[in-house]
Each structure stands twice: as C-alpha cells, then as structure tokens.
Amino acid sequence: xxxxxxxxxxxxxxxxxxxxxxxxxxxxxxxxxxxxxxxxxxxxxxxxxxxxxxxxxxxxxxxxxxxxxxxxxxxxxxxxxxxxxxxxxxxxxxxxxxxxxxxxxxxxxxxxxxxxxxxxxxxxxxxxxxxxxxxxxxxxxxxxxxxxxxxxxxxxxxxxxxxxxxxxxxxxxxxxxxxxxxxxxxxxxxxxxxxxxxxxxxxxxxxxxxxxxxxxxxxxxxxxxxxxxxxxxxxxxxxxxxxxxxxxxxxxxxxxxxxxxxxxxxxxxxxxxxxxxxxxxxxxxxxxxxxxxxxxxxxxxxxxxxxxxxxxxxxxxxxxxxxxxxxxxxxxxxxxxxxxxxxxxxxxxxxxxxx
Amino acid sequence: xxxxxxxxxxxxxxxxxxxxxxxxxxxxxxxxxxxxxxxxxxxxxxxxxxxxxxxxxxxxxxxxxxxxxxxxxxxxxxxxxxxxxxxxxxxxxxxxxxxxxxxxxxxxxxxxxxxxxxxxxxxxxxxxxxxxxxxxxxxxxxxxxxxxxxxxxxxxxxxxxxxxxxxxxxxxxxxxxxxxxxxxxxxxxxxxxxxxxxxxxxxxxxxxxxxxxxxxxxxxxxxxxxxxxxxxxxxxxxxxxxxxxxxxxxxxxxxxx
Lengths: 355, 257
Known about the structure:
The complex is a heterodimer of chains A (about 350) and B (about 260). By secondary structure, chain A is mainly alpha-helical. Chain A has one domain (about 10-275, about 305-335). Helix content of chain A is about 70%, strand content about 0%. Chain A has 15 helices and two strands. The radius of gyration of chain A is 22 Å and the shape is globular. In chain B, α3 packs parallel to α6 and α5 (about 120-140) crosses α6 (about 155-165). Helices cover about 40% and strands about 25% of the residues of chain B. Chain B has one domain: 3-Layer(aba) Sandwich (Rossmann fold). The interface of A and B includes residues 187, 199, 206 and 207 of A.
C-alpha cells in the first residue's frame, strides 16, 4: 500500500472520528459521556505508561504521581481567583497562585511540562534501578507527591481537596488529547529513537555496548511518558470537577497498569481497546452489586462484587492471553484491507462451493 | 602507533583476582587470539575493554586516549565493537532492526525530526536502511530481514551479531567465542568470514576462542591466559610448543612414586 493512500485513509478516519464525537456530544446523556471521556483519558494514560513500560521495558509505577501534578497545576491555573479566595478554608492560598490564571489549553500544556520536569528530576537517579526495584522507587515517588499534596494546605487545600473546578473537559478535549498522544508516541516508536528504546527493553547490556546511551534514552522515554500523564491529570481534574489527594492513590496507577497489560505490552492498538473496555466493564458491571437471581440462587447485594468480577475477568484474560488482548499486534491500513480482502474471498469461495 | 594499549590492568571482585596485570598492545590491522581454560579471565578482559567493568588498577588506552572507566556507549562511539559469548541479540525485533540499531550512534537527526518525520530524518533513515541491507547481503541474511532475530538458527544469529557490531563502524572488533556451538563446516565458513570482514572493513580483530583450529588457523599472534595471568604469548607454532600452555590445558605429570 502506498504511503499517500495511507495518509488519505487516516484523514478519512479522523473525519469520521470528528463526526462521531460531534454526534456523541449532541445525543448522549451525561452518564455515557462521562464513561467515554474517562475511556479517552485512559487511552492517553495507558499509552504513556506503555511507552515507558511496554516499549522501553522500565517498570514504572509513578503514573498517579505525574497525574496528581498535572491535576493540581491545571486546577490552580483554571480556577477563577474570586473562587480561590472562597475555598481555601484551612489556610489562604499562597501567592503567586492567587493571581495566576491561564486558558485551559495552556494549563494542560503546563501540567505536562511540570510532570515532565518532575520525571526528569526523579528519573536521573531512579532509572539506574532495574525491574521491581524501579517499580518500588517510582511507586514511592507517587506516594511522596500524594503526601506533599496532603500537607500543603496553602497550595492544594490539603486533604479537603478542591471542588468546583470548571468542567472544561469534554469529548473534544479528551479525544483530541488522546489522538495527539497516539500521533506523537507512535511517531516516536516508529523512529530510530523508538528502535533504541526497544533495544534497551530487549537487552540492556547489548544496547549499551552498541552505543546507545542508556541514561539519555530511559530518561527521555520517562519524561515524555510523564508529560502525557500530566496532561491526562489535567483533563481528569476538569472532568471530575473535584480533586483531592486520595484520588491519586496507587490504585490509580494500577488501573492504568491493568489497561496496559490487558491491551498488551507494546501495543498501542491494544491499549486503546483496553482503555475503553476497562471503563465500560467497570460501569456496566455495576448492576451485579445490586443483587440478582440466577435460577433458584439469589445473590444478595454485595458492594464491591463488581471489582471481584472484574478481577476474575482480568485473570481469565491473563491466563489465556499472556501477552494481553492484542499483544504485539498493531493496527495498520495494510493489515486492515488485507483482512477484508481475505474475508470477501473466503465468502466468494464458500458461495462457489455451495452452488 | 598502537591502536589499543592495555597497561597492566587488574580486575578484582572482592577477594578474587579475575585478571592480574594483563598487558597487551595491538597494532592496527592485527588479528590476535586470546585462549585459555574456562574461568581464566578472558571475557573479563573484554568486559574491561568495552567498559562493562572498570579495572581495579591501571589503564586502557585506545588510540592514545584513556578509555578506562568510560561508559560502554562512549567506548562504542570511540570505535570498539564486540559480540558476546552467549549472544545478546534483540530477540523480539526483526533482523533488519537489529542491524539498524547498530547505526544509532551515528544518528544525526534529533528527536523532534524523528517523531514528526522531517525530510532530513527520512533521508537518514533510508540511508541507514540501505547500509543495513548491504551488510545483511554480506552474510546472506537479506531474505529474512523481517523475521524476528530470535527465530533464526543458531549459526545465523552468530553472524547477525557480528553484522550488528560492524554496523557501529568499529576500528577494533572484539569477538567472544564466535565459533561456539558451530559445526566444523560452519566453523570453516566463519574463519573465511572473519578474514573477509577484516579486509573489507579495514578492521583490527581481537578474538577469544576455544576452537584451536580457528585460533591457530587465522591468528598470527596468540595470548594464553590461566587463572587471570598471561602465561604465554607468541605465534601459533610457539604457543603449541610452549610447556606452560600444555600444562595449563592438560595438567602436569605427577610423580606418585
């Protein structure tokens, strides 16, 4: 397939996506829109985690921390100043946060930059660690961010959190950011730099011996990953309209990790699919918590049964598909048309045989 | 001027001296062999030259520049490439990607132009691709360029690892047991191949090998190590007749009487 054709198809798919988002925004109710928004934000989060874990092979559990940084930066920048005076009850908001203000798009961008900066500082010493040790160190970092947020009442309003954040996030923003994330991270993965990242994942010593600077590439991957996690954090805050440190507990990171592992490490397509499946499942499994009846057996209402069911589903996926739903598979137009060609030829041949 | 000058380096791991006072000067264009029984410290010498270990004592000079303690990627950039005794390929990447990674240290394009595929990046990537294909053709692996490196037969993986090392454009190539696990026919081909790449790429080669046919066949100068110490040095004939070497390999007669 020609490059030119692929570009046309991609453009066409993007136009379709714009129409879909338009229709969804117009016709779906707030509940369904919330799920779709969360799905799109999880796409951004999942792909950014996949970059550092799936493609670079560095087990990072710091995503909730980067999200928290992004969420607070966005919040402090978009809250109107009269409102800031009102909600900081414990201690008044410190200068300069009282006066700074920025449009949503700039707030998101700055959220990313702050998260990336944090990643740069933490990454330089921590990325020397390998495997589980790196996971624990980055998990520790995320907890530190959360505890700092808890104990800085003059900036974050402490454990009370911040309520009444303007609800800027809609599908245009969440899907738009997801598309930009996919474009940039896919661009990175498909480049010579992406190849170097995967070389580090495959064999660190060999990668270093053939001239790949480990520190530079790991920190680069970690920083880019954190940037998008920060942006997603900003989107998240302006979707829920309320944030507090508890929202960024390690459970948040594990949710993202579930999306990445379920979709397949190193598969962007898989992450997109899993991000939406994850959020759909979490919501549509809600009815089972209300109690139900299968034949003679009556299930009482048990809060939390949804998570148990979800865990079982996850276990099944991991047992039967160790590499995730789409492990290693990546969407391409070539593959797409090849699949349909094969389908139609199969159909023709089966029609031919029945005659 | 010597290409590599190893000045009496010593490597200690805790109380164990793995390599003791190892010295070697390599002149450009040489093909030197390093032999010795298992555990003699041969691979440790390679690890010190390529920066994986830093010698406990004394220094290594490459083209008169002190490279002791430099990071492996900087040493690769200076012009030293190597293969590993137990191959280290990027198993889940394609054959062609494995070779193209070798060119990474010569990459000019920056990250932004790589992500957004600016014309200068696309041109560079195409040129790297063609150079990689040329290298693959030399070892007749061009037909399986899209296969995963880990799925290749053993002998071809060994060749691929050498090709990947060549892609970094080295002046000095270190081969750690290139003939390990090869049958006599493959070994014979490999000997020809090593001599061919030495001529084609104007290389200096330093190799570790257990297969005496290989070492005696292509190396003009041979070093023998035992228990971390260099016990002999010379041309193949001298080495074969050296009583110290025979002792290290076969042991000595003990008079039980």
